[in-house]
Every structure is written in C-alpha cells, then in structure tokens.
Design goal:
There is one protein chain. The protein is mainly alpha-helical. Helices cover 51% and strands 11% of the residues. The protein has a 3-stranded antiparallel beta sheet with strand order 2-1-3. A hairpin with a 4-residue loop joins strand 1 and strand 2. Helix 3 crosses helix 6. It is globular and about 50 Å long.
C-alpha cells in the first residue's frame, strides 16, 4: 500500500470540500479562490455538522419511519420528550452509571422482530430455526443513560424540524441570556 503524502491528502480534502461547499454555505462559483480559512470551515462542518443540519436529519428520519403520518399535538410531542427523560431516570434507578452504554440484541426479518437480552460486548447469541437464520439481520441497540439522553435530544430536534424552529439560534440566545443570570438564580433547592 502506498503512503499518501500530505499534499495528496490535502488535495483529496480540498476536492471533497469543493464538492460539498454549497451544502455548507460557500458559493460554488468562487471555490477556486477558496483559501485555507474557508477550507478549514468546510472541513469543520463535515466533521462536526451544525445543529440545524442534525435537526433536519432527525426530522427527516422521523418522517421516513412514519412518525408524522398522523401528526401529534404539541402536548403529545412534549410528553414523548419527557418519556425519554424518564427512561434515563429509570436506567439510573436500575443502577446504571451516567456514562454506561450497553447493548441489547434485536433480530429483524420481514415479519419477525425478536428482542433479546442485554449483551455485554456487542455480541449476541440467539436461537432460531436454521431455515430462518439466513433471513435475519442482527442489530445492536444501544441502551443506557447516554442513549436515552440522545433520544431526548433527537425528539427535541424532531419537533424543531416539524415547527421550523431554528434550534441553534434559540440555544445560542438562551445561553447568552443565562450568562447574565445571578448565581443559583431562583433560590430553589432543585
């Protein structure tokens, strides 16, 4: 295998950046004048998508999976967000650490879905008649507090996508405001 030189590596990144510059907010007509600062911006966006791009992706996935075939009320959506937070609390009450992720197996074929017990090392054993095994796809489902908190954020991003909320701007605005608040504002114990 030949080693790629830094110049070749930069060229590959540059070509990739030029190909994707319009999705990241750069004008494709002046990409020839793209300097290192602009290239760095493109590469950063590729490595770390902006929050609103994730909002679009989360909402589109929810649409694709049928969650919006029968639109829910605002209250139902908020309750779903709350239920994900409650699932995180249940994981904690079950003795899971806040940073612990574990996996449960899920075997899927066209008309059978079987949930299997927790698997420690992302490996699983399941039993099925041999005539069906070749038709199964095994999926490791992440479980635990980090996964439930991710579900909270995904649900929030989905509702923002549905209502057209600029979540990135709302978070930035709220964080800027919170910097002006006094220490332990509100005086409540929790």
């Amino acid at each position: 295998m030949s080693k790629i030189t830094p110049q070749e590596d930069l060229r590959v990144l540059y070509d990739f950046a030029l190909e994707h510059c319009d999705t990241i907010g750069l004008n494709p007509s002046d990409t020839i004048a793209c300097n290192k600062e602009r290239l760095d911006k493109v590469l950063n966006e590729i490595k770390h998508p902006r929050l609103n791009q994730l909002v679009i992706e989360a909402h589109q996935n929810a649409i694709d999976k049928g969650w919006w075939e029968n639109p829910k009320s605002f209250g139902e959506i908020i309750a779903l967000i709350h239920s994900e937070a409650s699932e995180a609390l249940e994981q904690y009450r079950d003795g899971r650490k806040p940073t612990e992720t574990y996996y449960s197996g899920k075997v899927v074929n066209d008309d059978i879905i079987t949930i299997h017990a927790e698997t420690k090392n992302k490996t699983a054993m399941f039993f099925a008649p041999s005539k069906y095994v070749s038709h199964h796809i095994f999926i490791d489902k992440p479980e635990g507090i980090p996964s439930e908190l991710a579900d909270v954020v995904i649900r929030v991003m989905d509702i923002c996508g549905y209502y057209g909320i600029d979540l990135e701007a709302a978070i930035k605005e709220k964080m800027d405001y919170n910097k002006t608040r006094p220490l332990m504002h509100g005086g409540k114990a929790i």
